[in-house]
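Justification of resources, computational component.

The compute hours requested in this renewal are based largely on the per-chain cost of generating structure records like the one below. Each record pairs the submitted sequence with a full structure-token output. That output is archived, and it is also reused by downstream analysis tasks.
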Amino acid sequence: MIACLHIAPASVVQGDPVMITMSGTTTAMNIQRASVAGEQLYWTVYQNIPTAFYGTDINQNIGTTTVTIIFKDGSRASGTFVITPRTRPQEEVIIPDSLGGNGAASGIQLESALEKDNADLAATYSRTDKALWTGAFAFPVASTSINPRFVTSPYGYNRMSGAETIVHKGTDFRAATGTPVYAINRGIVRKAKVYAIYGDTVIIDHGLGLLSMYMHLSKMSVNPGQLVRKGDLLGYSGNTGYAEGPHLHLTIRIGGVSIDPMKFFALFGVK
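The structure output for this chain reads:
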């Protein structure tokens, strides 16, 4: 088969997503296997173009990475992109009084609660046989842009909390308590539950291993198993869990890897 592979962007920093598309065909049915660094890619058709996403881990090895596609007729296509180092600023944060305040004992409890929360998040199911999302993704709160006054804490820095280092693997949006929070695209609600660290949290499965997580909500308005569409109300922002003040924390995961949400939106021209 004759098909041309396209990778965007050609160079990323650790933690950035990559969009992989093919020209010369309008279907992914002829793909036998596609992978990046041994990780399988899952395909859908977006704007009549076969499309897949790959998430680079924030700690992934830097250098040239290869995308390989094997078609059912035995032919192959490949391409490369470059992963560059991410600068990781550090920020000192306190343990809130609701979690015991600063201190050695609270630090141990924080670490234990964080491990428990993260294990539950990692176990969240995402179907890989089809995409549930349609069209471009949208921001989860109204009037949001990459303007710094809307993004209060970007992806990819270290939060030093006592002896514990918490990597910030999401984007914090400025949102006063009670601000409506919307689904960034169509999907199935997999979880709507309370976590010790992440507070009231809604998780949406968009299919093909893609999950979005909305954290520290003051109220949740959906239930597990519910179908939501882009722009549907999920709940309201707040400061539940480990939060210094009201805001919305958004995490996006591709194949279990938390990537920079703002870079993901930019793949769809949303800025």
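The first helix runs from residue 104 to 122. Helices lie at 104-122, 261-267.
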